[in-house]
Batch of 4 targets.
Target 1
Amino acid sequence: MRVLIACESSGVERDAFTAAGHDAMSCDLLETQSPGPHYTGDVRDLMGEPWDLVIAHPPCTYLSNSGVRWLHTDPARWALLDEGAAFFAAMWDFDTPRLCVENPVQHRYAVERHGKGRPSQTVQPWQFGHLQTKRTAYWLDGLPPLIATTDLEAETFALPMAERAKVHYASPGPDRWRARSLSFTGIAAAMADQWGRVGASQPALI
């Protein structure tokens, strides 16, 4: 399959699909952190190309439920919310029969603006081999929900809060956003395995 990982510079998901035998490329405004096929620029430049699968990670700064309180203290954020919601909705403009759009759980103002409804599913890292919590939402089109590969819930919640939620408690600094947005290798491997097989052997889901 020809796979695009949009709005990701880490290379984690791209490398998982490449290892599974797919023609995968990542795209971001930033250079890739891992050597491999990567387009540095606006992902909308690639929307006219045909893809068998697109997994998109549009920016969530103004869409995430965790930051909704700031909308009521900083009026300037409403215009940024509108821009973020429009970019999120644009992910459905890709020429692909199979699409996953990833974001944290969103607040209701974001959902109202982008018009794509609530997510198809949410996942946790402990369902895919990581002793961490970070609830992530997927909007799916032409793809089945991702199936968990492990169940480390008990072990994860036995850890201290600061350890199991270390993504949330990442130290302040210029690279904090990078640590909080990094893809989990276990989830990436499950995507490459499960969605890679769907694309190779089945038509897109209606």
Target 2
Amino acid sequence: MSILLVMALALLIGVVCGLRSFTGPALVCWGAHLGWLNLAGSRLSFLAHVASLVVLSVLAVAELVADKLPKIPRRTSAGPLIWRILMGGLCAAAIGIAGNGPFVTCCIFGGVGGFIGAFAGYGARHVATAAGTLRDFPVAIIEDLIAIGGGLFLVTRL
């Protein structure tokens, strides 16, 4: 696999984390647990363990539910944004390890992807609902499907 492809996958898994901060890590855990991502012997091998898989999957499902609630802070506010950048970097590091890509570069690309995904997702959702023709709930479900489907596609490429 080419380094450019690994770096592109790292950026894109970061975008997934920008859309839904726990979906990327949960899917990386599934990918590592199922053998799609080889993290054996690495600093991130804990992501393949059942405990990580269960905890991150539960958090991902909780986030999918909580995202539909009106009192959830914007993903572009400081705390949620920093978390999305960090999760993007973590997931991209796993992609980099599995794809033999440059570790630090993949982490940076994942963090940038988290930033891009947070603002792009927020902007797209705002634009889609601003005119009043689309309600927020169906738009949020579409965003969920994009994050889950896109993330699943990415973790099965290596």
Target 3
Amino acid sequence: MDKSMKRVLVFGGPTGAGETTITKMLIEKFPIFRKLVAATTRNMRTGEQDKVDYHFMSKKEFQDGIKNGDIIEHTYIDNRDTYYGSYKPDLDKKIDAGFNVIVNVDIVGAKYFKKNYNATTIFIKPSSLQELRGRFTRRDPNISPEEIEKRIQNAQEEMKNEMSFYDYVVVNADGKLKAAIEEIIDILKKENYNLA
């Protein structure tokens, strides 16, 4: 295995920017990519599967995972009393099997993977906050105006305080997903990822 080949790719960005959709499409296009299944202490939602959507854990299991090195980086969401973290056994298994791993993380995770795994970090952003607002209401017609404003505020903060840290910024505008994917593929080629 060529050691100069990159194996971890990070997508960050505000909720609704489209990193999940982009991740799915890249994996469909390049089967050498797999998504890291993160760990969380939040409750499983309808339709979700353990070890597929997340590694669902109790707080104690999660904290033990931090101690024993299975959770290599994590974030605690105070207002939801929930932990999210990167689960090393899943990462190791996929890398050992020869896959590139896409990680969807916040700024804490992006910094960790850049430093420890030489990951390329890409920030996905909407073309405007107005566009983001529209996506929230289309995705969840029952979303409250308060929740929308909270997410818009979070997105503003992330774009202002975190975006400049990432190696690349890709705009995912409504109706232009294909262009965003093409731009990302160009980045992957430039950054020496194996795509076959």
Target 4
Amino acid sequence: MAVIKERPTESYTLERDDVYKKAKELTIRTLPFDIESFIRKQGIIVHKEDMDNDISGYLEKRGNDWIIGVNKYHAPRRQRFTLAHEYAHFVIHKELIEREKKHFDTILFRGKENDAVETKANELAANILMPEGLFEQFVKDGVRNLSDLADKFNVSPAAIRYRAYKLGHIKEY
């Protein structure tokens, strides 16, 4: 059983705060964050599709429509992270995606080789689904088992483990 230590710091990104403010305006549940409803209420189309196992999802602009595609064969909690990750691309890399027309993600939280674009999308996705302040509060309140934290945020244990690592609660990912 994996457990993590408490860490007494807290910070937020502007993008995450903007997302949470908008979610509250749209009356979207934020724990666990209802990422799919949030995305759909902004007019972004969500498709769950057949994809090769190594493709998690994509963000694409078709005409005037923005579409996030998610691999329907991946576990639901992984799909949630993919949705948040692709939405993060929409927020912070929209102009880049418009030029490319379509952006595929073949890896999410899969190691140290992510480039800056993927790293930034992963960070915002993690901030949306597992906000640092709330993560820290759960740890402070004694929820330190990775599986229990994954249940609280409705994400995979791998996502929680990576988040715990990035927040300094564990030494290795």
